[in-house]
UniProtKB/TrEMBL annotation:
SUPFAM superfamilies for this protein: Acyl-CoA N-acyltransferases (Nat) (SSF55729)
Species the sequence originates in: Croceibacterium salegens
Protein name: FemAB family PEP-CTERM system-associated protein
InterPro entries given in the database record: Acyl_CoA_acyltransferase (IPR016181), BioF2-like_GNAT_dom (IPR038740), PEP-CTERM_FemAB-rel (IPR017469), PG_Glycine_Bridge_Synth (IPR050644)
Superkingdom per UniProt: Bacteria
Length: 352
């Protein structure tokens, strides 16, 4: 499988992510390009260990120079089918290239690789793509802004209405902790799994959280009320930014303003860690989550996602908000938490 794809003057080949020198070279290229966390081989391999979805990738080379990289996870699901995702379980990824020719070569090689591996769909969560691929620019927004110079400035930078909610959270009898230990992880999974069940979504395998935390700069922040975790977020730190990635709250969190307290405290914690930006991540356009982030003073920037579907196949639909899955979402919301937590990871590992 390491034979080159001879498509242009660039040579494109399948990367060997089991070779430390290869991984180090690609990690260096990602860092030089100031690319996202989700371009890193460390992310792909953590996803593989956490979900069983294979870490792959294509590199483009011109002579001895690396000119492009396409990170991929091969996603298998008995419900949603098979695809190559760039990157799996990520909100970013896609082609990273120094030359337009390398970007096109990588995408054409990805088409060939997908057919070889019986994956009728490729999803690129960012980056360039060929003109004949389907591109969406109106489905998702990303939200990021600089952190302020001190705690008071951070509070005052929040628009007045949302700032009032944060102040209510600060006045509640809540405790906030940050860590990477077993207690932190247990509390986070308890909160997160309940939160996504309430939204009608199966929870990801716990091993995915553990593997990504162990492989990357990360921590868990938990908000406690009388000893019970009521809100939590697992955050990643990359290139000077903090990204609250997997987070949520239980039913009581809303009345306690625990989520508001959680994100404000994370802003302060991230600045003390040396971060200069708060990456509030991706949300669907016109969604409640997007409105929540706008209330914090974040402006949404449209994301460009590209996809390719093999001839003769239908486009993959794993969107829990699509009409196709509305009935399943409604049923899932009513499942007992213990049942949802047993069944969820088996389904969610195929979402990608």
């Amino acid at each position: 499988m390491n034979a080159p794809f001879a498509l242009t003057s660039e040579v494109v080949r399948l990367a060997d992510l089991r070779q430390p020198d290869e991984v180090a070279r690609i990690e260096g290229f990602v860092a030089e390009q100031r690319a996202s966390l989700f371009h890193r081989p460390a992310w792909l391999r953590a996803v593989e260990r956490g979900t069983g979805q294979a870490a792959l990738g294509l590199v483009a080379e011109k002579g001895a120079t690396l000119t492009g990289w396409l990170p991929l996870n091969e996603i298998h699901s008995p419900i949603f089918g098979r695809m190559l995702a760039s990157s799996g379980f990520a909100v970013g990824g896609g082609v990273l290239a120094t030359r337009e020719s390398a970007a096109v070569s990588l995408c054409r090689a990805a088409e060939e690789l997908a057919l070889r591996r019986s994956c009728p769909t490729i999803e690129l969560r960012g980056g360039p793509s060929p003109e004949d691929w389907q591109v969406r620019t109106n489905s998702h927004l990303t939200f990021e802004k600089p952190l302020e110079a001190d705690d008071e400035a951070e509070l005052l930078a929040i628009p007045r209405k949302q700032r009032a909610e944060v102040r209510k959270g600060l006045d509640c009898d809540l405790e906030t902790t940050v860590g990477r230990g077993q207690r932190d992880r247990d509390a986070h999974y308890a909160v997160y799994s309940e939160c996504v069940r309430n939204l009608g979504t199966p929870v990801f395998p716990r091993k995915l959280f553990d593997e990504t935390m162990d492989a990357l700069d990360s921590d868990v922040q938990v908000v406690w009320h009388h000893g019970k975790p009521v809100a939590s977020v697992l955050s990643f730190y990359h290139d000077g930014a903090v990204m609250p990635y997997w987070g949520g709250g239980v039913w009581e969190a809303r009345a306690l303003r625990a989520n508001d307290r959680n994100y404000y405290e994370l802003m302060l914690h991230a600045r003390r860690r040396g971060c200069d930006r708060f990456d509030f991540g991706r949300s669907k356009a016109d969604s409640g989550h997007a409105a929540f982030k706008h209330n914090w003073g974040f402006e949404g920037v449209p994301l460009s996602y590209a996809s390719w579907t093999a001839p003769g196949h239908e486009a993959r639909d794993a969107d829990p908000n699509s009409g196709k899955h509305a009935a399943q979402v409604s049923v899932w919301k009513r499942l007992p938490l213990g049942v949802a937590n047993r069944l969820g990871p088996h389904i969610a590992r195929g979402l990608g």
